[in-house]
């Protein structure tokens, strides 16, 4: 997760559907389910796999049937390329990893549009911006070119940097369907399961990256089945595959709060090489 500093690249749920344990996830191939044994066998070859379990107080609230019902309505939908960037851009300056900066964003989109005109820029930027013009400003722009968006933003006297920070809202439809990246679908399943109580309608799933989810203070820090972390019990979660032990920064440390992650700067990795490893 280049823009956020996350130490995970994907997140998925395990749900029991019709008596079968499935991994349910949003991938580049779309929203799908895979039986746990088949998923684990395929994934452990080249992945580090960590399993986290809800803390007891949240497990008591968890309604798996409600999560399953939501998943069934999403199964087969496309991956959320349309809003992938909006989850981690919350501020005008503090979410852009080097060499990007807030001052460069407008020019970057124009150049991107010139180089990759058509489907790519429409998918990654324009559809999400059309949603913001519609739902925040009541403008049905339906822009198909970058300069169309800039014209509307100029009339509204707002910058592209600011427009990108407007939170993604649950319930927005793209081409008639919700489109979600892995973390957004995961968060929606947690919300459907009822673990957030009165906060449910004050959390926008589209604002959560994988890092935001593993840092949520909802996970069981004492759950260690025998197959986890063989020869290493220093991790506060269950790692079942991977070539080395994987540390998740600030795992399960932040209690949920209203409008969580809507105005947060990111902490991208600095990628500085250690002299001994160069």
Q: Can you walk me through this structure?
A:
The chain is of the alpha+beta class and 278 residues long. It folds into 2 domains: 13-80 and 177-277, no CATH class; 91-165, no CATH class. 31% of the residues lie in helices and 9% in strands. It is built from 9 helices and 5 strands; from the N terminus they run E-E-E-H-E-H-H-H-H-H-H-H-H-E. It has helices at 36-43, 56-59, 64-74, 105-115, 119-137, 146-156, 160-165, 182-192, 210-215; strands at residues 13-17, 20-27, 30-35, 49-51, 238-241. The strands form 2 sheets. A 3-stranded antiparallel sheet has the order 1-2-3. Helix 3 (64-74) packs across helix 8. The longest helix is centred in the middle third of the chain and has 19 residues, at 119-137. It is globular.
Task: Chart the SSEs and their pairings.
Elements: E1 13-17, E2 20-27, E3 30-35, H1 36-43, E4 49-51, H2 56-59, H3 64-74, H4 105-115, H5 119-137, H6 146-156, H7 160-165, H8 182-192, H9 210-215, E5 238-241
Antiparallel strand pairs: 1-2, 2-3, 4-5
Helix pairs in contact: 3-8
Quick structural overview:
The chain is α+β, with helices and mostly antiparallel strands and 278 residues long. The mean pLDDT is 88. Strand 2 and strand 3 (30-35) form a beta hairpin.
